[in-house]
Amino acid sequence: MLSRFCRYIEKVYDFKEKLRLLKDNRIQPQILTGAIWLSAVFMFATRKGSINGIEMELRVPKRLEKIIGKRKPKADIIGDVFALTETDPIRLILSQLNYKIKKENQDNEISL
């Protein structure tokens, strides 16, 4: 089910391209900023209650490896990167997603 969700958000929202906009202030990061934010997306999608909850999922061998990569972030790194991430790209991404969702809803109302 999670793989279908991943294909959907990539196809409809071009999610990987949007994640490339995210930057943080780390010097020579070993884990990409996009991979860390994807961990957060999956935290919300799977209804985990905290960053520690998603870390337990990430520790399962091969789980989410195709999406996040072999180097999976730990909870403290996720929190640190959230604090270091520039906010303007996040606002832009959320604005674009909101616009797309709103447009889809309007199109669905018209076709009914």
Description:
The protein is an all-alpha fold. The protein has one domain. The protein has helices at residues 2-13, 15-19, 33-45, 51-58, 65-68, 75-84, 87-111. Helix 3 (33-45) packs across helix 4, helix 3 packs across helix 6 (75-84) and helix 4 (51-58) packs across helix 6 (75-84).
Top keywords for this entry?
single chain; 112 residues; mainly alpha; 7 helices; 69% helix; globular
First-to-last CA distance: 28 Å
Shape: globular
* Overall strand count: 0
Rg estimate, integer Å: 15 Å
The DSSP helix count reads 7
Helix content: 55-70%
Q: What order do the SSEs take from the amino end to the carboxyl end, as H and E?
A: HHHHHHH
Structural class, please? mainly alpha
Brief write-up:
With 112 residues, the protein is mostly helical. It has helices at residues 2-13, 15-19, 33-45, 51-58, 65-68, 75-84, 87-111.
Write the topology of this structure:
Blueprint lengths: L1 H12 L1 H5 L13 H13 L5 H8 L6 H4 L6 H10 L2 H25 L1
Helix pairs in contact: 3-4, 3-6, 4-6
